[in-house]
Write a structure and sequence with these properties.
Layout: H1 15-32, E1 42-47, H2 54-68, E2 74-79, H3 86-94, E3 101-106, H4 107-115, E4 126-135, E5 137-141, H5 149-158, E6 164-167, H6 174-185, E7 194-197, H7 201-209, E8 215-218, H8 224-228, E9 232-237, E10 261-268, H9 274-288, H10 291-300, E11 303-308, H11 309-329
Parallel strand pairs: 1-2, 1-3, 6-7, 6-8
Antiparallel strand pairs: 3-10, 4-10, 4-11, 5-8, 5-9
Helix pairs in contact: 4-11
């Protein structure tokens, strides 16, 4: 008999330990099969523009919230710029059935499919959700001669060719589109508008502060630091309501009958199964309902514009048609 444990010649596991191990293994099998149908362990968010713009900022904000709430273990944001954003849309359509890919998109991409020689339409993809909307801000350098939107309008009307305008979105994107709609409302021939498009908000900001531009249109969230520091001034915002954090009127408050809101959302590739689409819809709902997302909305002064699934699909189809008509009217459609 062994002098240490009182068992005679027992070298393998006890009968009790064998039974316990078998029970544990039996319990583990059904648990392993309980993963949510369609769930992805990794997620890619594709941005159709260079780093630094509104799409990029929104995508990275979304990714940070997904990480913080523990919804996906491995998340990657990458930029695929080219063909005014439609290269990324083509990639999305090509990856048919890939449930681990989302495209950060919005009004700008919808417009670009009508201007560029895009082979694909946003309505060919799988609509997931509209997440946010925000107005455009009309910006000037801190030392600009234009103290108010009235000053700028008077100068622009007097000599349209002398006023150089810029934006960080692609041609026909929100910055460009709102500029042309504003010109139309003011009675300025859109063909006389001098507009420069920059690869994102950073280069546009540098041109504005360097006085290469007289004014610019941009989402206030992507220029928030320069606005808050006093490097840029906001002459007006294009939404229905003034931003309480900005000392600037709406265009309507300034007597200009124009409202304009930019929006951003998410598309998935076509050909997803019911479980995969259900998981993606559950993911964006989880993000939308989280306090982390609510905090990001407040921080960026975004308006919650959540619309998911079939409701977003209906909105997207209407927006695609409406944007195409608008671009044709102001001479920007391809």
């Amino acid at each position: 008999m062994d002098e240490h444990d009182g068992t005679a010649g027992r070298t393998g596991p006890s009968r009790r330990s064998v039974l316990a191990a078998g029970l544990a293994a039996g319990l583990a099998l059904p648990l392993a099969g309980c993963q949510e149908p369609g769930r992805q362990d990794a997620l890619r968010i594709m941005v159709p523009t260079p780093p630094g713009g509104g799409f990029d900022h929104t995508a990275r904000t979304l990714a940070s919230v997904i990480e913080e709430i523990g919804a996906v273990a491995d998340i990657t944001v990458f930029n695929l710029a080219g063909s005014t954003g439609t290269a990324a849309l083509a990639r999305l359509i090509y990856e048919r059935g890939s449930a681990d890919l989302l495209l950060q998109m919005g009004l700008g991409l919808v417009a670009n499919t009508h201007v560029d020689t895009a082979a694909d339409s946003v309505t060919e993809a799988t609509p997931v959700a509209r997440m946010i909307e925000e107005p455009e801000a009309l910006l000037v350098p801190a030392d600009s001669e234009y103290a108010s939107i009235d000053d700028l309008v008077d100068a622009w009307r007097a000599d349209p060719a002398a006023i150089r305008i810029g934006g960080g979105s692609t041609p026909a994107g929100p910055d460009h589109l709102v500029t042309m709609l504003l010109a139309e409302e003011l009675g300025i021939d859109p063909a006389a508008v001098v507009y420069d498009s920059y690869d994102g908000g950073g280069p546009m900001q540098a041109a504005l502060m360097g006085h290469t531009l007289d004014f610019a249109a941009a989402g206030p969230s992507e220029q928030r630091a320069a606005i808050d520091s006093g490097q840029l001034r906001v002459l007006a915002v294009t939404g229905a309501e003034a931003d309480p954090g900005l000392d600037a009127p709406t265009l309507k408050e300034a007597g200009i009958d124009l409202e304009f809101m930019n929006w951003r959302g998410l598309l998935a590739p076509p050909g997803l199964g019911e479980d995969e689409l259900g998981w993606l819809l559950g993911l964006v709902e989880q993000v939308h309902a989280s306090p982390e997302w609510e905090e990001r909305l407040a921080r960026n002064r975004w308006t919650d514009a959540y619309l998911a699934g079939e409701d977003f699909a209906e909105f997207l189809a209407q927006e695609d048609e409406r944007t195409g008509r608008t671009l044709e009217r102001i001479g920007l459609a391809g």
